[in-house]
Amino acid sequence: MHAGQHLDIPSELRERLRSARSVFVLTGAGVSAESGVPTFRGGGQTGAVWKGMPFEVISSARMVRNNLPELWEWFDYRRGVLSDCRPNPAHETIARWQDRFQTLTLATQNIDGLHDEAGSREVLELHGNAWRARCMSCGGREDLRDKRPDVRPPVCVACGGQMRPDVVLFGEMLPEEVWAIAASRAAACDLCFVVGTSAIVYPAAGLPQAALMSGAFLVEVNPEPTPLSEMCDVTLRGAAGEILPLLDD
Ligand code: BJW
Ligand code: ZN
Fold first, then answer.
1. d(CA 33, CA 195)
2. What is the Å distance from ligand 1's center to 107 Cα?
3. pLDDT per position as a tens digit, 72-89
4. Is 30 touching ligand 1 by the criterion CB < 6 Å?
């Protein structure tokens, strides 16, 4: 029996879903857990250590400077895992919400591209995308599916420069424009969902707090409590792929 099937959706949330005009959704690794993508900090399968290095070490700005080949090895491995993963009912429900609400903003910390694959448009990818490379000389971006997998680091077609994974590592700034849109939409929404994130990595974890401060109704979907749980109007404990479809009934 699935946890979500026993879950009662509070009537106030049903009412908010009916009346909401601007909905903001922040997702994290947990939304892709049921697709088989490992999370970082728990919740089933985790990918927190690789070759004896915690991911905070390997996924850090320092690795770009000190060991770019190993950083590529890590991300090539991760894409290998991702290539077998497909969107789950949580991604699909969020994609349907584009047609349900007047404004739907989806900001994700995930780099797996699964929201896009589920049909979400204009996904705000706060931490980049594992399927893209970025030139360290000219800033040009390329899809890795179009590049030779045996040349590492990949070489930029525009300028011949070395490329790096187009992801935001610890100690790096988030893409400025993506962040600006996410921050302003969070502050303008009336209903905010926080789905499958441990909510400890900043600045992303500040978005639901910005929504709350602007008067939004805050809903968390996560099997485990997080630092945000106490601030939420509703916490739905369970797997995103089971709970989110219940909100469409
Ligand atoms: C389910 C489920 C199911 C399971 N259904 N749910 C303030 C204090 C101290 C430090 C900082 C600070 N502000 C900023 C920092 C530094 C740092 C930071 O936040 N550190 C914290 C750990 C404290 N932030 C940064 O460095 C950021 N940049 C920045 O701040 O720039 C300014 C600056 C520049 C220079 C110097 C200082 C500041 C950048 C952060 C980039 C994060 N990048 C990563 C790696 C990306 C590449 C890669 O994939 O390798 O992004 S870290 C990793 O964590 C990844 C994730 O996007 C991110 C968030 O993790 P997420 O998604 O929440 O996953 P988990 O695994 O933590 O949680 C999964 C959840 O799902 C759990 O809650 C489960 O219960 C749940 N779950 N199954 C629903 N079926
Ligand atoms: Zn270039």
1. 11
2. 13
3. 999 999 999 999 999 999
4. yes
